[in-house]
Amino acid sequence: MRAWARIFLPIAAIVVAVFAFYARVESQHQMDALIEAEQVRLRMAGQRLVETFTDAVVDLRVISSAPAIRDFDPGQPQSRANAEALFASYVREDWAYDQLRLLDSKGMERVRVNRAPEGAQAIPVEALQDKSGRGDAVETLNLLARQTWVSRMELNIEHDVVEVPHRPVLRLAMRVSAGQQHVDYALVASLRGAVVLKGLRDFVSTSEGEVWLLDIDGYWLMHPDPRMAWGRQLDPSRNVKQRLPALAAELEHGPGVLMVDGSLYVHRRIEPLRKLAAEGLVSPSPVFDLVSRTPAELLPSRLPVELWLPMVVILLISAIGSALLAQTRLRSAAAERRERTLLEERSSSNELRSWIQDHIYQLSLKIHAARDLKSFGTALLAELAPTLNLAAACVYALQDGRARPIAGFGLPDRFELREFAPGEGLVGESIRTREEQRMRPPPPGYLDVSAGLGDGPPADLRVLPLWVHGRTVGVLELAFLRLLDSREEEFLRQVLPLLALNLDGLLDRHPGSG
Fold first, then answer.
1. 255 contacts 39 by C-beta, under 8 angstroms
2. One matching Pfam family, short form (predicted)?
3. Which residues contact 11 (CB under 8 A, 6 or more apart)?
């Protein structure tokens, strides 16, 4: 007993120490992965803003060059009608436009077309407004030729008061010269801020936390709580400089990560028109801050101190088994990392054919070593999962006229595998027709893929028959979080006959195995 204690107790103590260290390392790894994911999300959202703003500037330049604008004469009804028709075509066809206007040098509207339920509405001459107090015309007429003026994104003002219900707008304007006398006008486009923000909000809606959009002065333009937005015009206290001064100070220093009151903040400064501004085509160049906030309850947790004693008791009881299991898992993980690294290095430098041949070769090694249907299915999915980025999958073998499941991957605990007869469900239909069945995306509730940060339906579900010599021998049911690219599609097309041939051989050798 004493000899056993001298050997076992030190091992148990080492296991406890290793487990605690591993818990901290794993927690940090998850935190790093979360930060990287949020940084990528903000970078892509910033690119979305760049595209939106750039498209608007390009549209404005195209409109300014149209004959209806170059030849505009306010005293000619037909000239006004031509300008109204041009504006109406843009407002009607582009969901982002709220209105297009032409203002004279005194700020008086000469032509105005609004978005309306029927598409576009030209405003009569007697209803046109004096906008000299807004500064659009003055700012625009001070621009150089072909320059674009960009306003702040703000709530729309009609007759000198904030419009209710609130309607955010973004204005772009250019100085144009029209008519034989080359009279200067301000061409002003108002974008529907709500549409721009909704597009951005939908783009980042997969985030577990919150995503904010701030203007350069720290006022919220997009916030999960609508009451926090538009503080510049409604309540100056709704400003990140007052609510979160530590974060506001960090925003000036470019992309970064910050922990405040237990929440994780990832931020990135976006200047959508920076390139055009550098070329002298935009003035001023708008600047925004994108901020991702992940609250403390959604962050990876560390091992609580109060759980250490129960953990030690459990580990002391199963120290030897836990040590062996941990050693096996660590070796397996290291081997998988080495193999994945090797595959990534090879795939990055090879042509499409080389990549496909390499992966088919790796897959064939695993499935040729399979001695029964279960090991065949397990080896197959273990290889297909990283190669095709599977979210979930199932392999069926055709036995006694029915498709029987032999292996699964990534399926929820509540999911129960079942058999299918020919013609029954998508699996049965693929057996009957020997054709691929596909749902892109599957209907709500069909299958939810779960992960550590949440769950949701796959983007694509494909049911592929495996047949050889005109006879169906099995079915692959694969769920993906994204659509396959052309390289992955070609790999899948070439590998199906190999899988069918190997499965057919196993069925001949083990006709009754599962």
1. yes
2. GAF_2
3. 319, 320, 323
**To 10 degrees, the CA torsion angle through 407, 411, 415, 418?**
-20
What is residue 140's predicted lDDT score, i.e. its pLDDT?
A: 64
Two tokens at 405?
């499941």
Residue matched to tokens 């046109």: 128
pLDDT of 237 reads 93
Residue type, 177: S
Residue 214 CA to residue 205 CA, distance in Å, equals 17
Question: Which residue ranges form the domains of the chain, and what is each CATH number?
Answer: 57-191 (3.30.450.20), 196-298 (3.30.450.20), 350-509 (3.30.450.40)
How many Å apart are CA 128 and CA 106, to the nearest integer? 13
User: Tokens 């997969």 appear where?
Assistant: 206
Nearest to 49 by CA among 169, 171, 213: 213
pLDDT digits (tens, 9 = 90+) for 200-223: 888 777 656 789 999 999 999 999
Whether the Cβ atoms of residue 354 and residue 384 lie closer than 8 Å to each other: no
Beta-strand pair 161-162/220-222: unpaired
Local structure of residue 124 (DSSP, 8 states): P
Q: Which helix (DSSP H) or strand (DSSP E) does residue 409 occupy?
A: strand 402-409
- Give the 3-state secondary structure of residue 350: coil
| pLDDT for the residue 324 | 47
Q: What is the pLDDT of residue 193?
A: 86
Task: Give the rounded percent of residues in the chain with a pLDDT score beyond 90.
Answer: 37
Q: How far is CA 99 from the centre of its chain?
A: 30
Q: Are 348 and 342 in contact (CB under 8 A)?
A: no
pLDDT in tens, 109-139: 999 999 988 889 999 999 998 887 665 555 6
Could you say which DSSP state residue 303 is in?
A: P
Residue with tokens 């250490």: 308
CA distance 178 to 199: 35
Q: Which H/E stretch holds residue 305?
A: none
Q: What's the pLDDT at 283? A: 81
Residue 505 DSSP SS3: helix
pLDDT, residue 269, reads 93
165: cis peptide before it, omega within 30°? yes
Q: What pLDDT does residue 342 have?
A: 66
pLDDT (0 to 100) of residue 212? 92
- Residue segments in the chain with a per-residue pLDDT below the cut of 50: 305-306, 322-326
